[in-house]
Amino acid sequence: MPAYAPARDNRAVTESDILSLLRLPAIADAEDSAQALRLQQLLDDKTKPPGSLGRIEQLAQQLGLILASEAPVLQAPQMLVCAADHGLAAQGVSAFPQEVTRQMVENFLAGGAAVSVLARQHGIALTVVDCGVAHDFGGDRPGLRVRKAAPGTADASLGPAMRAAECAQAIAHGMDLVRELPGNALLLGEMGIANTSAATLLTARLTGHEVAACTGSGTGLVGPALAHKLRVLQSVYLRHADARTPLAALAAFGGLEIATLVGVLLQGARERRVLVVDGFITTAAVLVAQALAPAVRGYCVFSHLSGERGHAIALAHLGVRPLLDLGLRLGEGSGAALAWPLLQSASLLLREMASFAGAGVSKRGELAV
Ligand SMILES: Cc1cc2ncn([C@H]3O[C@H](COP(=O)(O)O)[C@@H](O)[C@H]3O)c2cc1C
Ligand SMILES: O=C(O)c1cccnc1
């Protein structure tokens, strides 16, 4: 198998090229104001001063809205680690070689990666998806789904990273994967050497911020190597100046794992699943999905603020605040897994905490003075 997908024509891919090959799902708004008020009243009626559980109360309310329940139960959580290679890796934009993508897929499956350990700890089922790794895994295995639209993207410094058909196929794969999975919560992770570059370019294009403000060290580039990454990204950004719509930008910059995550987000929201977003790269997928279908954002729980530079910009653009700030900059879904117990606590508190009346506890202001 070639290291990268073969050279392709240089014609810019347009949003309508991709949309003509796809049917995007219709997504209902998670934010129903009457239900939000009802959930707020239920939380205020619990045996605690109003608002004293802080952001866990907002999280509980969001889970109630997504799952359309006053007693939400999180069921069969699924971690999806979407993996793919990037042709742009050939331009020296990562501290690690491309074969690490394939090697880490084996590590996920063997149970030795950070996300493997954390998923195991929390009883989260882990599925690795080969969305476009430049390696033939020989078909599905326990824990591995091969859903390859291409064996890696093309080098975005030379032309579009994906053809329209590849981009549409990767999104469709993401939608199909969700249909096959049980449960009502999806945790999103990724693996792909050089994918902070694709995420940086998407973040810059979709938020309107400078490439320099969105570029970080990824797997650990510093000094001249980081300056080189920035120069490469600025030139790729200019080369695809006409790729302005979300799907055109996705096809121009890549990658296949981000496109698959876009499909996962769209279908997950369609099915009213809780979508736990990890770090910078998965948030770049949210930027694309949300630009296509604004209701997606209401289904997303942002697990943590990544140490990667552009993440704060992407989150601010979405108008959201992540749960944790631990200085993580790993990806894989590690931050989503770490935040999972907070979601479990929020749903349990909403379900199981007593009300003032139920527990015979006096409400504030009920005592005569
Ligand atoms: C051993 C190893 C494990 C990883 N797990 C996640 N990533 C993370 O780093 C990569 C992105 O950084 P960049 O754009 O600099 O290549 C992605 O694969 C991401 O998931 C890893 C990277 C490495 C090296
Ligand atoms: O936040 C992330 O997702 C991230 C940051 C650095 C490297 N890989 C992933």
Automatic annotation (TrEMBL):
Q: Which UniProt keywords apply?
A: Cobalamin biosynthesis, Glycosyltransferase, Transferase
Instruction: List, alphabetically, the SUPFAM superfamilies matched.
Output: Nicotinate mononucleotide:5,6-dimethylbenzimidazole phosphoribosyltransferase (CobT)
Question: Which EC number(s) does the record attach to this protein?
Answer: 2.4.2.21
- Highest taxon above the source species: Bacteria
- Active site location: 332 (proton acceptor)
* Pathway info: Nucleoside biosynthesis; alpha-ribazole biosynthesis; alpha-ribazole from 5,6-dimethylbenzimidazole: step 1/2
The reaction(s) annotated as catalysed by this protein in its Swiss-Prot or TrEMBL entry are:
5,6-dimethylbenzimidazole + nicotinate beta-D-ribonucleotide = alpha-ribazole 5'-phosphate + nicotinate + H(+)
* Xref: InterPro entries: Nict_dMeBzImd_PRibTrfase, Nict_dMeBzImd_PRibTrfase_bact, Nict_dMeBzImd_PRibTrfase_N, Nict_dMeBzImd_PRibTrfase_sf
Q: Which GO terms describe its molecular function?
A: glycosyltransferase activity
Q: Which Gene3D superfamilies does the annotation name?
A: 1.10.1610.10, 3.40.50.10210
What family does the database annotate? Answer: Belongs to the CobT family.
Q: Function of this protein? A: Catalyzes the synthesis of alpha-ribazole-5'-phosphate from nicotinate mononucleotide (NAMN) and 5,6-dimethylbenzimidazole (DMB).
Record's protein name: Nicotinate-nucleotide--dimethylbenzimidazole phosphoribosyltransferase
What organism does the UniProt record list as the source?
Pseudorhodoferax aquiterrae
Task: State the gene name recorded for this protein.
Answer: cobT
